[in-house]
Design brief:
The chain is of the alpha/beta class. It is built from 19 helices and 27 strands. A hairpin with a 2-residue loop joins strand 7 (157-165) and strand 8 (168-177). Bound molecules: 6-O-phosphono-alpha-D-glucopyranose.
């Protein structure tokens, strides 16, 4: 959370910073600010979105500068207001900092600094950090980069920081621990950002900073030292990201674009990994760990939010196909409950961003107990991808809408391929079933396209429910986690209270909520619990609830009892979550748009949650 960006070179810095912040706004949008060095060191900041900052900058006449830093905030310490917005000045006003993360020992540091006479203008931990750095700098009479290093040896917590100094108009200092930072290397210019999206149109040569590294960009040169003062050689990588993939491409919102990208993103997740002729699933990043997986006593999936839901789908699939016992845990719970993990367990961390703080901490814990950790991440080179022993990328392309859509379907696709590969090697799946699922998986993108063609119908349906106060989502088996995901999507972007339940649990509580005002979305596809779900629909109807049923194409029974039906094509049972989730994504999207909500940047949320 929080997006940070920096520039030094010969171009005009302000427009680069603003454009970069807009690309990073998915990481937080409580306030935005930039600092530029021209005659002095000037900070401009404002509560609200980057567009509000832009509006105040339009009134400024002198923004000429070739060096600057920018920040878009997701508030942790201190409410979202102008003074808590970044950048923050040091005590003398000669330094400015942008920070993503949390300094956990900030209050002890602040107390010491206040005793020394420091006055703070904000409630943030970040302002404390820059005061602390300057205090060391003045006291030790060392270089600024050395002062940063010394300060960081005393800091507890997570950070990605960039610092500029009035006295050094060609220098940026950046450091990271636990929050991502990428440095773009251009011709006589450097870019720094939380991810590569602000950098890609200028250069595709990048260096990913590692934890505990401090980068000094000075006089057109990049040097890296660690917090322990060991020099490290920058490893330059070439980005494969394209500019089009991070733009809206004619869609009104990123979320809609990403929903519609799913036939392709699912295809991309499978590309080169399934071979129908030889009947093979090839996941290169797992090859080395295949025996470990096949012989695992237990598989534990960890993740947060939508990624946790993908883990729940995987639980059903893995246990069914591989006969390996599976547990699915919220990373945030796992990390604090002294879990029993052995070297015979395999932990699979699922994360779109690859940066979620709780998931990263859970990985470190499992690693310390000797388990093999595999990652299922979307962002290449992300912290989780690097912290795990091996894994499989989603290759779904950048997901920018805060509510996850295409990452979910790609996560499920990758997890299905993993389960198939393990089951085959383990001999827990028959050859005919393996081939049947593989062929069917290959046909999923076309089936998703078919569902997407009912977008207009779903939009019409959304009109009838845009003013609902509550929603219930029901599903069973493989589709129970989809009910959770449908409810989460609606909550996240439309602010309507929604709950997902296993359909059979309805009678143990939620049924008490049902009246004529309660829409109930029921995933009622033809599978082995079809009859039971039909009974649930009747129970809802008997209490005058409004039923929106997701049904299998050609079903003639449910349309007779449900108020609304949305059809999905038939598929193998384990693949159906890839289909049933699509109408739920579209329904949430349209309801949110009709309620005037900002679907790409819902209130209080951020896409990449790099704090606990
Ligand atoms: C945030 C996002 C969710 C996401 C969750 C986990 O809450 O808003 O969309 O599912 O984090 O993120 P990850 O990147 O680890 O999948």
């Amino acid at each position: 959370m929080c997006g940070i960006v920096g520039y030094v070179g010969s171009r005009d810095a302000a427009p680069i910073l603003i454009k970069g912040l807009k690309r990073l706004e998915y990481r937080g949008y409580d306030s935005a600010g930039i600092a530029l060095i021209s005659e002095g060191l000037d900070v401009y900041k404002k509560k609200g979105k980057v567009s509000e900052l832009e509006a105040i900058l339009e009134k400024e006449v002198n923004l000429n500068s070739h060096i600057g830093i920018g920040h878009t905030r997701w508030a942790t310490h201190g409410e979202p207001n102008d003074s808590n917005a970044h950048p923050h000045y040091s005590a003398s006003g000669n330094l400015a900092i942008i920070h993503n993360g949390i300094i956990e020992n900030y209050s002890a540091l602040k107390k010491d600094l206040i005793n020394k006479g420091h006055v703070f203008l904000s409630d943030t931990d970040s302002e404390v950090l820059i005061h602390f750095i300057e205090d060391i700098w003045l006291h030790e009479k060392c270089s600024l980069e050395e002062a940063v290093r010394l300060a960081l040896t005393k800091v507890v917590g997570a950070y990605a920081i960039v610092i500029i100094s009035k006295e050094h108009s060609n220098q940026l200092i950046a450091a990271r621990k636990g929050s991502p930072l990428v440095i773009g290397i251009g011709q006589g210019e450097f870019f720094i950002a939380s991810d590569a999206s602000p950098i890609i149109e200028y250069t595709n040569e990048v260096v990913y900073l590692n934890d505990y590294e401090i980068a000094l960009i000075k006089d057109n040169e990049l040097t890296i030292r660690t917090v322990e003062d060991i020099s490290s050689t920058p490893y330059i990588q070439t980005l494969e990201l394209s500019l089009e993939s991070i733009e809206k491409g004619g869609y009104e919102h990123f979320m809609l674009k990403e929903i519609f990208e799913q036939p392709n993103s699912i295809k991309d997740s499978m590309r080169g990994r399934i071979n129908l002729e030889s009947g093979e699933v090839i996941l290169g990043g797992l090859r080395q760990y295949m025996n470990k997986l096949v012989n695992a006593k237990r598989i534990i999936f960890i993740g947060c939010g939508t990624s946790w839901h993908a883990g729940l789908v995987a639980e059903y699939i893995f246990e069914d196909l591989t006969r390996i016992p599976v547990e699915v845990e919220y990373a945030s719970e796992f990390r604090y409950r002294n879990p029993i993990i052995s070297e015979e367990d395999v932990v699979i961390a699922i994360s779109q961003s690859g940066e979620t703080a709780d998931t990263l901490a859970a990985i470190e814990l499992a690693k310390s107990k000797g388990a093999i950790i595999l990652g299922v991440c979307n962002v290449v080179g992300s912290s989780i991808a690097r912290a795990t022993h091996g894994g499989a990328y989603l290759h779904a392309g950048p997901e920018i809408g805060v509510a996850s859509t295409k990452a979910f379907t790609s996560q499920v696709t990758v997890l299905i391929m993993m389960a198939l590969a393990i089951a085959r090697k383990k001999g827990t799946i028959s050859e005919s079933k393996f081939m049947e699922i593989l062929v069917d998986l290959n046909n999923i993108p076309a089936k998703v396209s078919r569902i997407l063609s009912s977008n207009a119908k779903i939009e019409l349906l959304a009109k009838d429910f845009k003013d609902s106060k509550n929603f219930l989502y029901l599903g069973r088996g493989y589709n129970f986690p989809v009910a959770l995901e449908g409810a989460l999507k609606l909550k996240e972007i439309s602010y309507i209270h929604a709950e997902g339940y296993p359909a059979a649990e309805m009678k143990h509580g939620p049924i008490a909520l049902i009246d004529a005002e309660m829409p109930v979305v029921v995933i009622a596809i033809q599978d082995n619990s079809y009859e039971k779900v039909v009974s649930n629909i009747q129970e809802v109807k008997a209490r005058k609830g409004k039923v929106i049923a997701i049904i299998t194409e050609g079903d003639t029974e449910i349309p007779k009892m449900a108020d609304y039906v949305l059809e999905i094509p038939n598929a193998s049972a384990i693949l159906k979550p890839l289909l049933t989730v699509i109408p739920l994504q579209l329904l949430s999207y349209h309801i949110a748009v009709m309620r005037g909500c900002n679907v790409d940047q819902p209130r209080n949320l951020a896409k990449s949650v790099t704090v606990e």
